[in-house]
Amino acid sequence: MRFLIVDDSSTMRRIIINTLAKLGYESFLEAGNGREGLERFGGGGIDLVITDWNMPEMSGIDFVRNLRSTPQGKSVPVLMVTTNAANADVAEALKAGVNNYVVKPFTADTLKDKISAVVAHA
Amino acid sequence: MRDVAERVMAPLTGSLVDVLVGATTDVFEKMVFRQLQPRNTVWGHAVRPKSQIVGTVGFAGSSSGLVAFHASMAAAQEITSAMLGADGDADSLPDAIGEVTNMVAGAFRTRMAAFQDAWAISVPTVTIGSDFYIKPISTGDRVLVTFAMDAHELFVELIITPHTGATV
Description:
The complex is a heterodimer.
Chain A: E1 2-6, H1 10-22, E2 27-31, H2 34-42, E3 48-51, H3 60-68, E4 78-82, H4 87-96, E5 100-103, H5 108-120
Chain B: H1 2-8, H2 14-32, E1 37-43, E2 53-60, E3 63-71, H3 73-84, H4 93-112, E4 120-121, E5 125-128, E6 141-149, E7 152-162
Antiparallel strand pairs in B: 1-6, 2-3, 2-4, 2-5, 3-7, 6-7
Helix pairs in contact in B: 2-4, 3-4
């Protein structure tokens, strides 16, 4: 399984990749904003997307909307990892096409559980 | 709980500080694996923390302002190592402090969203140096909270300007 991790923070990308590695996954692509994320995803072979919301150039929510408008991105599972956790934020993310949601700050167990839940439906 | 919302529209009070302290300690417990001890809380613009790295995140909406996180380089290195383990080298330090600031501001925003419309927040900015301070051009209220992280002293600063006519 190949993951695309989209986050402007290299720290957060590393934390997510380390968590995935502990779960036994080995194949990752990284992007620093939504625009880069679309380019990486366009290269093909992505099974699951993990994205932040607040990013420069293109936000995570716009990235997901763009992703869902493409034939390849219509059904790929998307997990959003973000500090945006108000009720209105969650509703907006789900409407845009996000499948599951992790709120920062999170424990390692929470991230593992959410990733496992999204992978199970992939 | 409503009490907190009403106080957002007034000069800063202890309730709002409690929300900020809760957001900060939660971030450090879950992501930095450190217990923070809140120490002093200082209102007003007079006190300037001595720090060598500062992360800032702005917010706007029914109120506007910023959240700033101040640390020494030694504390920042310890935070980075705690978050990233063996990957936590000097190059990753500014990004790690930016992400800590982002999470503190985001957690504070989320908690405040229970009382009013959620603010829009900016991506973090990180400044490294030793002879500077933040001077807001707005007439907002300011509070500086000091925390102890083991032997290190950390500071979280909130500057907030309630907008006239804002609704809760």
